[in-house]
Design brief:
The structure is a homodimer of 350-residue chains. Helices cover 23% and strands 27% of the residues of chain A. Chain A has 350 residues and is α/β, with parallel strands linked by helices. Chains A, B: InterPro entries: ADH-like_C, ADH_N_2, ER, GroES-like_sf, MDR_fam, NAD(P)-bd_dom_sf.
């Protein structure tokens, strides 16, 4: 890919939503199209024109592919015929905004396309530490990192020796959350959807133990095996049957931080939970949260996590596919759990 | 009923569990039997021998009629062939415990019988304020009072102008919780299961509004009608469909305090909740609790609530049946929502 000059008009490959999705998204719900874009911010705009480098595949994008649901206000829904968007890392080529200049590296919401005009760059984060892989700003130093940090350090406020369970543990958030909990001296068990992921958790990510939920016919019994005394803290990603089994196995006064329920996102009929009664019986505290509530502590997160990366105290596993044209398969694969670690799409190297 | 003398052996009418209950309890799951009891604490025991005055009908007793479930540790299960027990108000006839003397009035766990030997009286509360109806110590000044106080003042920490929804609002806890929230300057709406109960909430208990959930085909639409801006705080008693609709109508950062889910207690197949995802999307905080966590603030609760009663700032509606032999019907009626206010059984007047 050649060097682009500001003002030049270039071809712009894009990932377009074909039509609203109703159930599990399929690769054919998206298609690649090419338009043209002028590499210049329009006169009078305070936007920025960026070249996209890495795009993040995130579970919530399943919702954004659906027709807007009035209950889900706060989310941007994709528009059929237009490119989808999500978190990404990009390089500023031209700026109409006083905080950004050509050459800046940023992360935040951008389009699934080679170049994007970001009309409202106020929410972009400028990237200062570039001695770590730039793709990390879609993961450990991006939204999943904020989520894991908030879940473990802020909401969980974990104490040494506490028993912690993490579902979707090899995913973008789970792998970090587990490592953070280990750094705090907790006993940490993770669940994942393949033997390969289980091995990763135990052998590379330092979890005390891990299991493949697909091979466990009785999740209640499974959790009793790993947590004979019960669970102090559960980082909830998956919902459904797993949450139901967890409710049975929480300690009295146990805490659950909920950042997602990926198993339920595409079901027409969600799974019936039998054990919600235990919220009262066990006096559980359950707190839903999203990364958006913790953007104000991002500087503190960087101060903590960047040294962890440099000192190899945490590792971060990414599943990177090369090329925007391979984005739709990667994204749909995430919804099926086919990714191995954080799913990233490389659009261009810097 | 004549005056009893300590040491006398008397007949003791009891309510006995016939066999473990599997689904909705029926009146025939209980029967009345008469044994004898010596009105004296056995030599060397530090128990108390009490004459029972008022017995409390509480939702949790449905569980206690079942075969012990290892998940529900912390609850006492009834034994077939033996009298059931629950909260009640009683008078001490004889005491082997240094904290209690003959003539003391107490409330706490006692048997469903005329006289009980309470082996471990350490958990009984002594009654000091007797210018209020003694039956109130099964309700507003007993377990439901502690629950309502904790839910509204401690967990809810409600602020003036907040929008509060209370289900099972005419029940033992709900009617109080609603009045407490009104005293704090909140907008309070309650749901109940009959027009008569709705009228009670609006006309006598000072709720801003109320509805009969049995006549609302679309609870989501109902809640939107009463809470166009959403709900700040929900005191959860009922679970199931109501909770599912509430999740859709909570404000972002809304709080839910869960003291029970009575609609789900007797279902073989609990209702599927579709909207648990909103815990994350709306960043809800959900906290389960029971009165047992708040016994240490009971003196503070009395200091607040006794003056409220004396000054008519709160009223308390009781549904009192006379006679232990009418206890089984009253108890089973509670599980069906047949009670109008706090369900109490009078065993004897002091």
């Amino acid at each position: 890919m050649g060097k682009n000059n500001a003002g030049e008009e270039v071809q712009n490959k894009q990932v377009i939503l074909r039509d609203y999705v109703r159930s599990y998204p399929k690769e054919s719900d998206l298609y690649i199209s090419t338009s043209t874009i002028k590499l210049q911010v329009p006169q009078g705009s305070n936007g920025v024109l960026v070249k996209n480098l890495y795009l993040s595949c995130d579970p919530v994008m399943q919702f954004q592919m659906r027709k807007a649901d009035y209950h889900m206000s706060g989310y941007y829904y994709y528009v059929p015929g237009a490119p989808i968007n999500g978190f990404g890392v990009a390089k500023v080529l031209d700026s109409g905004h006083p905080d950004f200049s050509a050459g800046d590296l940023v992360w935040g919401t951008t389009g699934w396309e080679e170049y994007s005009l970001i009309q409202n760059p106020g929410k972009l984060f400028k990237i200062h530490h570039t001695d770590v892989p730039l793709s990390y700003y879609t993961g450990i130093l991006g939204m999943p990192g904020i989520t894991a940090y908030a879940g473990i350090f802020e909401i969980g406020a974990l104490k040494k020796g506490e028993c912690v369970f993490i579902s979707a543990a090899s995913g973008a958030v789970g792998q970090l959350a587990g490592q953070f909990a280990k750094l705090l001296g907790c006993y940490v068990v993770g669940s994942a959807g393949s033997q390969e992921k289980v091995d990763l958790l135990k052998n590379k990510l330092g979890f005390d133990d891990a299991f493949n939920y697909k091979e466990e016919p009785d999740l209640d019994a499974t959790l009793k095996r790993y947590f004979p005394e019960g669970i102090d803290f559960y980082l909830e990603h998956v919902g459904g049957k797993m949450l139901d089994a967890v409710l049975l196995n929480m300690k009295v006064y146990g805490r659950i931080a909920v950042c997602g329920m990926i198993s339920q996102y595409n079901l027409d009929q969600p799974e019936a939970l039998k054990n919600l009664l235990h919220i009262a019986f066990k006096r559980l505290s359950i707190k839903g949260f999203t990364h958006r509530d913790y953007h104000h502590i991002y500087p503190k997160i960087l101060e903590t996590v960047v040294p962890y990366i440099r000192e190899n105290k945490v590792v971060y596993v990414e599943d990177i596919v090369e090329g925007l044209e391979n984005g739709p398969a990667a994204l749909v694969g995430l919804f099926r759990g086919r990714n191995f670690g954080k799913q990233v799409v490389t659009v261009a190297h810097e």
